[in-house]
Amino acid sequence: MINHFEIKNFKCHEDNNHFPLPGITIVSGTNNSGKSSLLQSIFLTTQAKGRTYPILAANDELRIGSFSDILNKNQPNSATIEFSFNFDNKLLAPYGVDEFNVNLSYKNPSVFEKLPIPFFESNPFLSSIEIVLKKEKEEHELYSLEILDEKTNSILYKIDSKYDNGYCKVEGIVPEPIIYSDVEENERVICSSHLDIIRSILKLVSTENIKYMKAFRVDNFVDSPNNKVSEIGLSGQNTAEVIHKYRETIADFKFEGSDEILTFSKVFNYWIEKLLGANYKIRSNSIDKDKFKVTIYETKTNIEYSLNQVGFGISQILPLITLLLTSKKNDLILIENPEVHLHPKLQSLFVDLCIFVLENDRKLVIETHSEHIINRLRFKIKENPEILSEINILFFEKDEEGFVKYSDIELTKEGRLASWPKNFFDQTYNDLLGLIDQ
């Protein structure tokens, strides 16, 4: 999946900010310092793909506002918002590609007044795509696609590359197979193996491969299916239905040292027992033909409880467990504040689940304010130093002038912090010193 991500002019991120994304990236820091913006920007790259027109607009749950709302406040309205990323080598290898870098530039739609698209409103518009591709034993090839705002009957991008020059239609961020050598004459197809590869790789940037879970999650889990393939919503919607639907499906997971083929139910129940205790089972019941409901079954007493009869924390961690365990290899999972309403022990055990997901070839980016999550991660590194290279902790803050800055927190194989930045979880230490002094 995505190996490295850059942001420019998105919300409080002004300069090119570069973020490595190994197996687990922890995003921590002070309030209003750009943590959520990193997760949102990664997810937003998926939102342009499936649209007829390449605009930057998320669904109703992830409201980002208009172009002026998300453009960095120090930039003029004519500036571009840019996202850049590249991919892991293991994903590129099947295509015979050594390197694949993408830069997406979004502009204010007001600069495209001649485009007759009534529903643009104020959504940022994908104005250019730049792709650098390097195949085995070949030189780097640059594909630059830039919108032609003078075209009034369709959205066309001019392609400039060594092998193909002409025009193409772009749906979302995936170029169509047809390149027009001259839009005013008969259409002529120019075949390009490179463009086939580009389309295939860019299709990996989708909501099928990049998942998102917001900080505040629904708590009742009475779900009504809509006759579509069910996915967990950004706030945990459809959790009951997904648990019910996946219960007998083969899980894309293996336990360490075992080649046993696992069902979702077996993996799910294993982690429910680890996180909630051996006395509890989760059930997803069909309460009529259109609705599903999650209940908690206590094995000692043979009593079944609804979620509003147990602690609120269970309803908050269930969507996270379900999202993680229905993921696929090479998925990228973005999670805001998993610690919300969770007991410290449960926060720590959640890290164990994340390590299990990492070991089964997923990536996670987790925004958190939890010392328990970070300390448990440090302990897991000490327990297994081999995962150190897969862990990255980013600390965000703003300087005195209001500019975002971040630090990579270096960890040792013993789980220690090589350096401890100011304001990085030092309040507990300061409070304890105050108690001692008194």
TrEMBL record:
InterPro entries, per database record: AAA_GajA/Old/RecF-like (IPR041685), Bact_Antivir_Def_Nuclease (IPR051396), DUF3696 (IPR022532), P-loop_NTPase (IPR027417), P-loop_UCP034888 (IPR014592)
One family name in Pfam for this protein: AAA_15
Which part of the chain is the Endonuclease GajA/Old nuclease/RecF-like AAA domain?
1-374
Q: Where is the DUF3696 domain?
A: 390-433
* Record's protein name: DUF3696 domain-containing protein
Q: Which organism is it from?
A: Neobacillus citreus
